[in-house]
Each structure stands twice: as C-alpha cells, then as structure tokens.
Amino acid sequence: MTTTSGPGAPAPKLAKRPSPVRKMNRAVDERFHTQRSLRENLNKVFPDHWSFMIGEIALYSFVILLLTGIYLTLFFDPSNTEIIYDGSYVPLKGVEMSRAYASTLDISFDTRAGLVFRQIHHWAALLFVAAIIVHLFRVFFTGAYRKPREINWLIGVGLLVMGIFEGFAGYSLPDDLLSGTGLRIASSIAQSIPVVGTWASFLVFNGEWPGTNFLPRLYVAHILLIPGLLLALIGAHMGILWFQKHTDFPGPGKTEDNVVGHRVFPVFAVKSGGFFMMVFAMLALLGGLAQINPIWLFGPYDPSKVSSASQPDFYIGFLDGSTRLMPPWEFRGLGHTVAAVFWPTVILPGILFTLLALYPWLESKFTGDRESHNLLQRPREAPTRTAIGAMSITFYVVLWISGGNDVIAKTFSISLNAMTWAGRVGIIILPPIAYVVTKKLCIALNARDHEIAHHGIETGIIRQLPSGEFVEDHRPKPDPVPDHPVVPTHRFELSPPGEHGNGHGKTGVATRARKAVTGFFTEEKAEGGEEPVSGARH
Amino acid sequence: MTASPDAPEAADPAAEPAVARPASVRGRLVSATARRSRPASARRRRRSSTLVLSLALMATGVLWTVLAPSGSAQDSAADSAAVREGRALYLQGCSTCHGLNAAGTVSGPSLIGVGEAAVDFQMSTGRMPLAKPGAQAERKEPSYSQVQIDQIAAYIQTLGGGIEKPEVSEEALADADLMFGGELYRANCAQCHQAAGEGAPLTYGKYAPALTNATPEQIVEAMRVGPESMPVFAESQIDEEGATAVAAYILHMRDTPSPGGHKLGSYGPVPEGLLAWLVGIGGLLGVCLWIGARQKV
Ligand code: HEM
C-alpha cells in the first residue's frame, strides 16, 4: 500500500545463516502471511507537527485509566449495603456508611499504593477529557475534519460524550457526599425531561431516588459498558486514521496525494513510546504530589447533608454553570410542568453537541466545498471557521467559569450575585465580540502573509527616491514560494525528499536500528537514511 | 484605651457575673441537656458560683435597671474595677456605633443581652471595633488585648446578661470524640463552611469564612452566638460535649497533613480542574512543542 520514494540504499549484507529468531519468523509468515502487512505497516509514514501529538495524550491517559482502574477493581466493592466503618481513618470510625464508601476509604488508607492509584486514576480522567477537548480544537481549527474525515470527527464527538459519561460514573461510584449530591442532581435532570422523564429516572435508578440497587448498575457501566464502548470507538478512530492517513500542513514536497514525515518504525515508534512515558510521568507526579477528591473529608452520602462548594469535575462544569445562570423559570403547558433545569441541562447540551457533531456537513453546505482535503489549513486561512471556533470557546468558557463562580467569588472576594449577573451578561455579549475580533484578526494576518508572499519581508530600511518619495526596502521571500501564502517555517529549509541522505555516511542510531529491524522482519534490503520520506496516498 | 495596672487580677472574677443571670434569662437560652455536667464545666461552675454569688443580687438588680429606659443604670455597676474599666473602654471605642448605653444607634445594633461570648468572639477575631462598614465584618488582628476584651465583655455582661464565655480546655479537646465532631460538622456546618472548612460565599457579598484561624474558644463562641448570617447552635441542639468535639474535628482537619499530597486548598474539583489544565495539559503541550522542535531534521 505505502510505497516509498526514498532512494535505494546498498543492501545490507544478509546474514549467512538464518538465526533461530529469523527462522521462527519465517515459520510464522509461512502460516499466517504476516510479513506483508508488517512491512506495510512499519513503513507507514507519519507527518510531524507538535499539534498532531495532542490526540496521543488522550490515548495514553486512557491506557493509564485502564491500568489503574483494573487495580482499583481488585479492592472496590460497589454495594449500597450499610456497614459500620472500622478502618484506620479515625474521624470516621464507627460511622454508618455504604460498602462502596467504606471500600474507597480502605483503598485510600489500608491498601498498598491504593491512594496513589486512586489519585492517578482520577487525574488521568481529568487529563483524558481535557486532552480530548484540546485535540478537538486542533482538528477544528486546522479543518482536518473536512471530507474525507467527517466520520472520524463524528466518532471523536462520540468519544468526548462517552468520556464525560465515564468520568461522571466514576465520580459517582465512591458514594461520598459529593458523589451523592451529583447523582441527585442527575436524577432531577432526568426527571425534568417532559413525558418520559420520570419513567427514565425510575429505569436508571431502579425506583425512587436514591435507588437501593443503583451502585452495582453504575459500576457495570463504569468498568464494562462505557470502557468497552470507548475502546471500540478508539479502535475505529485509529483504524480510520490509519486507513485514510494523516493530514499535514502544506509545505514543499507536500501535496494532496502524499504524506511526508517519518516511518512508523523506528522514528515515530520511538517518539511515541517516549511521549507515552512523559504522559505517564506527568500523571504519576500529579497523583503522587497533588491530592484529588479527598472523599474522607466529604463523609458518606446522606441526602440530608450538603457541603458548600459542591462542584462536579471540570468536564461537567459547563452544565453546572448553565444551571446557575438560568433564571428559575418553569414552563407549564399541555398538562406538563417543565422544570427550570430542563433547559440548561438537557436542551442546551443537546443543541451544543448536535451542532458540534454536524459541523463538517454544515460547513460544506455553507461553503459549497465538496472536495476531499488532505492538506490542512492554518486557522487564519479560514477566518469564518476560526471566528466560529473562538465564539464557541468563549461561550463554553463563560459557562465553565460560572460553574465555579462560588469558588471564584470566595477567592477574589467578589459578590456571588455579581458573578451570576456578570455571567448572564457575558454569555450574551462576549461570544459575538470574540467572533468579530477573531475574524478581523485572521483577515489582518492573512493580509500580512499576502504582503510577504508577494512583496517580500519588510526590512525596516527606508529609502528616499530621487523623486522625493519614501519607500521601504523589502527582502525577497525565500524560495520556494508556494502558490498560496504561507509564512516561512522550518519546512522551507527542507530539501525535497530524495535530494540528500542517500545512505552515505548516515549511520545514526535510528538508521541502524531501522535497517536492522527492517532486515529482520522483512528479509529485504533496508531503505537508506532517516530523513523524511514521503509515501503515496492511495 | 489604657488598661489600669490592676486590671489583670480584677478581670477574672469580674468576668464571672455571667452565671448570675436571672433564672428567666438562663431558662430561655440554655436547655437542660446543657447542664449535664462534665468534669471541666462542673469545676468551672463551682468556682464561678463561689466567686460571684455575692455579686448575684447586684447583677440581677443591674439587669432590671438597665432594661428600664433610664440611662443612669451604668453607675451602679461601678463596684467592679473591671466593669468600670470595661465601660471606659467601651465608651471610648464602641459607643459611637453602639450608643452610650449600648442600646444601639443607626450605625450599630444594641448590645444589651448579647453577652460576653458575643463580645469576646467579635473582639478576639478582630471584627469589632468595625473598621469599615461592609456586607460583613471581617476577621483581622484584634486591636485590644485579651485583658481589655475581658473587661469590655464583663461590662456588656452586666447589661442584661447573655451567653457566658465558654471555656475549652486542652484535655477536653484531646478527649473529644472526632467521629461525633465530624458527624456534627458535616450535618450543621459544612453547608456553609465547606466540607474541609475552607469557607464559601453566601449571597450579596456575605460569606462563611474559612475556619483556618479560629481558636477552639472562638469556634464554640461562634456556635453559641451565631454571628450575623450564621445560625445559633444553642446547647439544646449541640451540647458542650458536642461543641468541643466539633472544635476538635475542625482542628484535626486543618492540622493533619493530607495523606494525598498537596491539599490544593481542599477546595475540590475547581482547583483540581485548574491544575489538570495548567500543569497537566499545559506541561504536556510543552513536551509536544519540545519534541516537535527537536524533529526539525
Ligand atoms: C476500563 C477502564 C476503567 C476502570 C476499570 C475503572 C475503574 C474504576 C473504579 C473501580 C473506580 C472506583 C474506585 C475509586 O473511586 O477509587 C473508579 C473511579 C473513577 N473513575 Fe474509573 N475506571 C476506568 C476508566 C475510567 C475513565 C475512562 C474515566 C474518565 C474519563 C474514569 C474516571 C473515574 C473517576 C473520575 C473516578 C472517581 C475516582 C475517585 O475516587 O476519585 N475511569 N474507576
């Protein structure tokens, strides 16, 4: 599938006698025909850009969630049964609580490495959703979702929603005061849905809130159903990416039909392996040094108690914010009462996520662009899209801040009522302002790029012409000048593939490793050089 | 505001007329449960009764005269040096707002009947004298010494009695049942002061302050007095044992190092989310940029 246009290198000398490993490799190939696909896949080319690694943060956080989650399942008991706590946290000794809460306390205080695993798990959950959001921004602002990648965009939105549900389910499992308060709100949101609400809430909670048998159900969702779905979606996401190949920014040697970058083996694999370690290190640091969700302070869930500043995790925050900003309006009609929470917690996210999911199709409908695109756009090259993005982020951030408005009010000694009203006004006027400002900015940046592409770079040297006119000298833009305005990046210094690095004298570690392994797996001559290679996109 | 040299000795016995409140006042404020004796409080009560029984009659008289509209009542309190000192301090520092006979003015409520616990709470937390009018008096460094505070408290106590200053001994704190205190705290205090005692805003610029600086005495006083928007927790609701346990629990929470690492202000998901974004995502994006920059070929 992927053919390389890299220059041929002298074939490394094949081993005289095949080693045992090599013999086994051949044996496997003779039975399962693995060599061909291995060769193809290891030779796959991935483009380099720092922003293409954001999705990997989400992926690796998910892997760490799975690993730490499995450890937690060994000790967690998702049962509503009430017991008397008798563990080593003194202030709760003798308190009646559910087994779920007691076992989470035991994980925290009486299990080897339990607390650090819990904390890494929770930090990984936050990082997972946050990385998905940043990854979404990258995809959005570069237009990577355009045809032919709309389906992967849709899967991505599904992953975001599932990630949010998964996190909420996890947050609700320990049955502490925060969990319970969150679940109670979730149940009243479910009940606010007209016609089916009460029924849906009964179904989910197995009866009247707080259902007697709810935690086991939630547990199944948290450790089996949703992770399974996430895994399947991630598999599809990566499979489609593999099949359609990665997009890239325009640059010399880059066209709509090729990929310029590094092969999966060894450069991309080593880079990604290293990056996984970085993500893991970051989570280990957070989990080891920063306390998260100290459930022992919140106490067991008791419907009659509530702590001030009961907040959900950040990814639910925008719904909390929309609820706080919404005036308490109830609607009555057609024999139904629609509670005030219905609008900000059901209708609003419904609209937001629908728009998000449909965005690729909406854009192509409005621009009339039905072409396939494998080259990305820089945000400024699509001012309207970028402005829509900025507007949406502003909208989201106002809701998000409003979700934590009590903590902000307390920290900065602002009146809570003032914060609420600032949020109400802000949600109406700030997004349009963001739209206009961003669009103007993009257009101005484009104009400057255009200027540079056609007149060269300003030197700051002013000359007076004999006629008395003043002109500024412009240095010509470095070659090659592409036919669209692109500011010079390091890519311009790249020589087109094939010009150098034909194997002579290039024996870096990566080259040697690649040669060795290519030879080992494929029994074919190794390609030369570690320089970027370009693969056809078919 | 100068305390006379003999003030220290004088202050202690004089502070005690509190117990000699008329039966009717005591019956209203304190329920039978509170009288369940524990060693420390029993000792205190025995001592105070012997010390001030002689003053009882006088104090009762003072109460009734004060309740009468005439302003001449204060003169009859002159028997006690501490009360006299207290009155002088009061006239100097407080009367502009609370009135010459503490009956209140437009700029401050009446202090008759608030009791020494209220005065001690307001002054030892630095809330009074009020620095600037605002939504709520703020905690700050107290501007009077404890001796002076006791004197003013003694003086205010003569004006209609009120809740006496509670004593919280080290032993009582050490013996307190943390589990009981935790239960009471989560049931009665967490909804305003937050689960970890970090405080939270109420409406219109009012707030429940963080409990990071309150002393055990101030904690119990706050419960008994119910300053501003805080409700009163009388002894009928939370008895002395319970109040001590709440104080012990609050001290335990703030003095025990958190097992999980840095507390992040113990403020739950908001600072956690902030850290995840700033350090987690921010740091890893930095790593992306770094790896990207190293790949320039
Ligand atoms: C298959 C993967 C997973 C397994 C087996 C798993 C397992 C668990 C278990 C057993 C608990 C309860 C114990 C405890 O709270 O300490 C838990 C809590 C939690 N999970 Fe997961 N989980 C998985 C994936 C995820 C994912 C993908 C997310 C978020 C997007 C997530 C977010 C949470 C959160 C926020 C908690 C609460 C943690 C806390 O106590 O502070 N989990 N998980």
Automatic annotation (TrEMBL), chain A:
It is found in: Cell membrane. The chain crosses the membrane at residues 57-76, 120-141, 153-173, 219-243, 264-290, 341-362, 382-401, 421-438. It catalyses: a quinol + 2 Fe(III)-[cytochrome c](out) = a quinone + 2 Fe(II)-[cytochrome c](out) + 2 H(+)(out). The lineage of its organism: Bacteria, Bacillati, Actinomycetota, Actinomycetes, Frankiales. InterPro entries: Cyt_b/b6_N (IPR005797), Cytb/b6-like_sf (IPR027387), Di-haem_cyt_TM (IPR016174). Residues 1-20 are annotated as: Disordered. It comes from Frankia nepalensis. This is Cytochrome bc1 complex cytochrome b subunit. Its EC number is 7.1.1.8. It is an enzyme of class 7 (translocase). GO terms for biological process: respiratory electron transport chain.
Automatic annotation (TrEMBL), chain B:
Binds 2 heme c groups covalently per subunit. Residues 35-45 have a biased composition (Basic residues). Residues 81-160, 176-254 form the Cytochrome c domain. Residues 1-45 are annotated as: Disordered. Its EC number is 7.1.1.8. Signal peptide: none annotated. InterPro entries: bc1_cytC-su (IPR009152), Cyt_c-like_dom (IPR009056), Cyt_c-like_dom_sf (IPR036909), Cytochrome_c_Oxidase_Subunit (IPR050597). One of its GO terms (molecular function) is quinol-cytochrome-c reductase activity. It is an enzyme of class 7 (translocase). Keywords: Cell membrane, Electron transport, Heme, Iron, Membrane, Metal-binding, Repeat, Respiratory chain, Translocase, Transmembrane, Transmembrane helix, Transport. The chain crosses the membrane at residues 48-67, 274-293. Pfam families: Cytochrom_C, Cytochrome_CBB3. It catalyses: a quinol + 2 Fe(III)-[cytochrome c](out) = a quinone + 2 Fe(II)-[cytochrome c](out) + 2 H(+)(out). One of its GO terms (cellular component) is plasma membrane. Heme c 1 binds at residues 94, 97-98. It is a multi-pass membrane protein. The cytochrome bc1 complex is composed of a cytochrome b (QcrB), the Rieske iron-sulfur protein (QcrA) and a diheme cytochrome c (QcrC) subunit. PANTHER family: CBB3-TYPE CYTOCHROME C OXIDASE SUBUNIT FIXP, CYTOCHROME BC1 COMPLEX CYTOCHROME C SUBUNIT. This is Cytochrome bc1 complex cytochrome c subunit. The lineage of its organism: Bacteria, Bacillati, Actinomycetota, Actinomycetes, Frankiales.
